[in-house]
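Please fill in the sequence for the structure shown.

STRUCTURE ENCODING:
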């Protein structure tokens, strides 16, 4: 069986986070096919690149990552099964909106890894959204 490389788009308004997360995930065997700092660019990348997973920061400057996830799902229903919310904030700080989000789940940026992403995606396929 051949392991497929996950194709990822990262959405974050901090250029340093985009660079660091891209390097980390690439080093761990993922393919970061795109990065975006704003919602409109993220939607365009999702439609153009059809990534396996989208990592969306909860706080995107003046934009809401929660609203962006809803927009992504409106444009492509399968986005719900491949979008993960990320943040430097603790999950408890946003527990209610995370639970209400159509995203697969949540990862703190401090725990971001290819393994954690794969675990959330596998859990979503097996059991529904994970948090």
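FILLED IN BY: designer on duty
SEQUENCE:
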């Amino acid at each position: 069986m051949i392991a497929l490389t996950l194709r990822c788009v990262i959405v974050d308004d901090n250029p340093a986070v985009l660079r660091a997360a891209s390097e980390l995930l690439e080093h761990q065997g993922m393919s970061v096919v795109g990065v975006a700092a704003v919602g409109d660019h993220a939607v365009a990348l999702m439609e153009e690149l059809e990534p396996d997973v989208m990592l969306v920061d909860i706080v995107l400057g003046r934009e809401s990552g929660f609203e962006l996830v809803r927009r992504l799902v409106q444009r492509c229903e399968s986005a719900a099964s491949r979008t993960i919310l990320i943040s430097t904030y603790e999950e408890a700080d946003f527990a209610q909106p995370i639970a209400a989000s159509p995203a697969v789940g949540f990862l703190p940026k401090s725990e971001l890894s290819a393994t954690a992403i794969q675990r959330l995606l596998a859990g979503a396929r097996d059991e529904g959204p994970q948090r």
